Amino acid sequence: MKNRKVMKRVLVIAIVAAIAGGSIGTGVYVQRAKMTAEVMSVADLNSGYWGDDVNSSGMITNDYSQSVEITNTDEIKEVYVKEGQQVQKGDKLLALDTTVASLNLQGKQLEVENLNNQITIAQNDLKKLKNTKPYVEPANPVTPEPDIPHVQEMAGNAYNYISGTAVPYNQNSADGSEENPYRYLCTESAYVTGDFLSQLAEEKTYAVFEIRENNEVSGELVTAWEVDGAQIAVPDGNTKWSVYDHSQISNDASEAEDDTSVVNDGISNAGGYTQAELNDMIAEQEKKIKELDLNKRKAELEVEKLKAQSSDGMIYATVTGIVKNLQDKDNLPNDGTPFMEVTGSEGLYVTGGISELLLDKVKPGQMVSVSSWESGSSCEAEITEIKNYPSTDVSSYGEGNNNVSYYPFVAYIEDTSGFRNGEYVDLTMTVSDDETGSSLYIFKGYVRTENGKSYVLKADENDRLVKQYVKTGRIIYGDTIEIKAGLSEDDRIAFPYGKTAKEGVRAVDSDGSYY
Q1: How far apart are CA 245 and CA 341, in angstroms?
Q2: Where would one find coiled-coil regions in this protein (predicted)?
Q3: Which of 339, 387, 395, 490 lies in disulfide reach of 408, CB 3.0 to 4.6 Å?
Q4: What is the mean pLDDT of each run of 10 residues along the chain (515 residues)?
Q5: Are 349 and 266 members of one domain?
């Protein structure tokens, strides 16, 4: 009897507790339903970005010479000037064979494309290194298991390896042609078997093996390997070929690595890298990326020059002056001597410097502001030439990086009033990735990060806060971040650190005073 009373008492307590708990939960829901969060228009928050001012300085001169250099791959079709001839800025100097110039351009464009691919691979390798867990010596050494499991064919929606059983994700729409190839989603450690490549060669089929973020078809493309079965050399059937860098994988390499280790850790720490070793490898990889990026920028500068040549094959005078040191077009020098020089006889010129990081943003024809230290006179000058090699004799500042090389550029001053030969001047120009100033830049406090992904709290069509993931870009001025995707000026967002800034809370427009 006593036990029955105890049981009833426990039951009553449990029921009261359950009711109380339900009331608390309902209270939280009701409380959040009554809460409001102020939101601001993204258009009002957008500070925009029109570019950074790049500053340099130089000395005005009236004896600048244009050097016309011909490479060993160029072929001169016709020379329009003679030794000692007076020429005007814009006059024809010589014509190159456009066929050769076009081939040179194609070769340089392929070089730029190859460098871009190398940079992408190097950046992904750097990301893997930064995600690698350092090796820590265990207190009790662990004996590895003798049995090695076989690699699973799939890791989610992506293939760990491509064999005859693999199915392209576009199988219902593709036909295996170059215009509509079969596409396979692969993990970063995936490989293609030699048998499969042989099958592509036999059927003359075109296939693309893609590596995308999060191993999802909708993820951003990391890299792709395009294979034309009609063009490849048939490999041995027992070989394996890496999708990531297209190289052959040794059969002695372990096949036991589960792809989830790549996803979670970036690089397997089976090699036992210590933190110090990882730091050295990261520094070396960052140095490699910097060198590749510089080579790409130099190649892009060459592409712009070759484009001008391949269009009509003409090389024009960039200064008004006298033709000197003209060489024989049928007996070109191979010691680096210019084919000709044009010594300026009128007008003023000034040489400034541009950072290697901005080589792809500054072009001949761009205007630069000139102001005198002595007289205070100012004018606009036109950049006529950017040198192919860096120099320590140029003055440039304002880029915020002292560990870069600087390339000389020459600017022509047409209106010389107020300036004299030998006078020092300041040079200023504005460079930007976005010429229209339409980029979206907001205070970075509005952006939060969750599991490596950035998001904002946006008001939806029902005026309720929802989590909106965004793709971010560069940070400028230390507190402003670029939004590349996921948000527009028509949206409204809340400051995500506010007390009421939570998903589901009703959004109300702010008068701006709080912000």
Answers
A1: 45
A2: 105-132, 275-309
A3: 387
A4: 42 41 44 76 81 78 77 81 88 82 76 86 85 69 46 84 91 89 93 92 92 88 88 84 84 42 37 76 87 81 69 79 86 80 77 81 86 85 83 61 75 81 84 62 88 87 91 79 89 87 88 57
A5: no
Q: What is the CA radius of gyration of the chain?
A: 32
CATH number of the domain bearing residue 43: 2.40.420.20
Shared domain check, 472 and 485: yes
CB atoms within 10 A of CB 460: 12
| Residue 149 placed within a domain | no
CB-based contacts of 330, cutoff 8 Å, min separation 6: none
Reference 289, options 362, 190, 357, 241; nearest CA is 357
Burial (Cβ within 10 Å: 0-12, 13-18, ≥19) of residue 17: exposed
Dihedral angle sign, alpha carbons of residues 123, 438, 385, 378: negative
CA torsion 450-453-454-457 (nearest 10°) is: -60
Exposure string of 431-446, with b = 16+ CB inside 10 Å and e = fewer, is beeeeeeebbbbebeb
What CATH number does the domain containing 387 carry?
2.40.50.100
Domain hosting residue 494, numbered range: 36-50+437-509
CA distance 412 to 63: 12
b/e 22-39 (16+ beta carbons within 10 angstroms → b): eeeeeeeeeeeeeeebbb
β-bridge mates for residue 409, sequence order: 352, 386
Can you read off the two tokens belonging to residue 255? 């096949």
Same structural domain for residues 378 and 457?
no
Verify that 328 and 303 share a domain, yes or no: no
Tally of domains within the chain: 5
Tell me, yes or no, whether 515 lies in a domain: no
Neighbours of 459 (CB within 10 A): 23
Q: Where are the alpha helices (DSSP H) in 256-375?
A: 259-265, 275-312
- The sign one gets for the Cα dihedral 304, 306, 308, 310 is negative
Residue 221, judged by CB atoms within 10 A of its CB (0-12, 13-18, 19+), counts as exposed
Using alpha carbons only, give the angle 42, 47, 51 rounded to the nearest 5 degrees: 140
Give the amino acid at 390: P
> Would 144 be classed as within a structural domain?
no
Q: Are strands 492-494 and 453-459 parallel, antiparallel or unpaired?
A: antiparallel
What tokens were used for 492?
Answer: 């409204």
Domain assignment present for residue 136? The answer is no
